[in-house]
Amino acid sequence: MGGVRRREDPRPPPGSAGRRRWVGVDVARPGAVRHHEVLILRRGRRRPAKTLGALVKTREATGTSEDAHLWAVGQALRRIKADLGGTHSLDELARVACLSPFHFHRVFRQITSATPARFLAALRIAEAKRLLLGTKANVTTICMDVGYSSHGTFTTQFTRLVGTSPRHFRRLARDLATLPLEEVLTGSVPAGPRRGPPLRIRLSGLPAGHLALVGLFESGIPQGWPAACTLVRGTAEADLRIAVDGSYMALVMSLPADAAVEAALTEVRPDQCRVGSWGPIRVQRGRPAETDVEIVLRPRRVSDPPILSVSPLLAASRRPNGTIPKMREPEPRPAGTDRWGGAR
């Protein structure tokens, strides 16, 4: 039985004349066992386990609950990504993860720092970003493809999470996509307030030749405009000063300095990307509760939220610098098409 390790109970069952009895299941690695492969062998008979929730509880009992939770969340995310335009209820996702809805919601938030609904919205907008940059499909078609039935709702959501409208993002992305990330970002990240005690960010595991973007966001998803942000290179240390009180998550993404902007916009090379997080960080009267934090960078995994915010690139597009191409004017609309490029 692939992935299932059986454990022998030395006590023979009554009337078995010393025949061996196998009980319980233990999985060596998460994701190695499918639902129909989990078996409980008892008194020489095999019967399917009632639910993989039993598997999760087994791994929790053996001290590997994090692996079990990652596996459960990964199953749900694979279902979502297979049909981004579909309607995914909490009950459906919990069923895929083989957990109760209440337990699944708690585990999902613990692993991803976001609720399933917000994570789904982020995945849809991330896919919309990819389609806007990599295809010629008009905004209305992309809106429908990622699960929105209203163009207005999609545009509002996209603008709120990304920081700019779909049409402006497409022009910005196509202008900057092939430029080196370091060239675009140098001098474009806002300096932030000069007063107030700083929050020292130290990065562990920053690869040589990488640069890292560090931002303070209101949730575990890097979306919208951060409360503060900075660019880290070389020393792997930076100071952040926060002007607005609140509770924030420090989120970090690093890429090779010579990587193209497209890699940051659409995550086309996840093997090059390193991420990390720390939080929540509470700020009161401009003073962070913690003044020195260390964030360990690691490779991306399936449970990491997509990177939606493009605020540094928006700042770069507004910078009067000859190395950054100016925004192209919109091309004339062909006759017989609406404002989004679709047929009338």
Automatic annotation (TrEMBL):
Biased composition (Basic and acidic residues): 1-11
Annotated InterPro entries: AraC_XylS_family_regulators, Homeodomain-like_sf, HTH_AraC, HTH_AraC-typ_CS
Domain HTH araC/xylS-type: 74-172
Disordered: region residues: 1-20, 312-344
SMART domains noted in UniProt: HTH_ARAC
Keywords: DNA-binding, Transcription, Transcription regulation
GO molecular function: DNA-binding transcription factor activity; sequence-specific DNA binding
Protein name from the UniProt record: DNA-binding protein
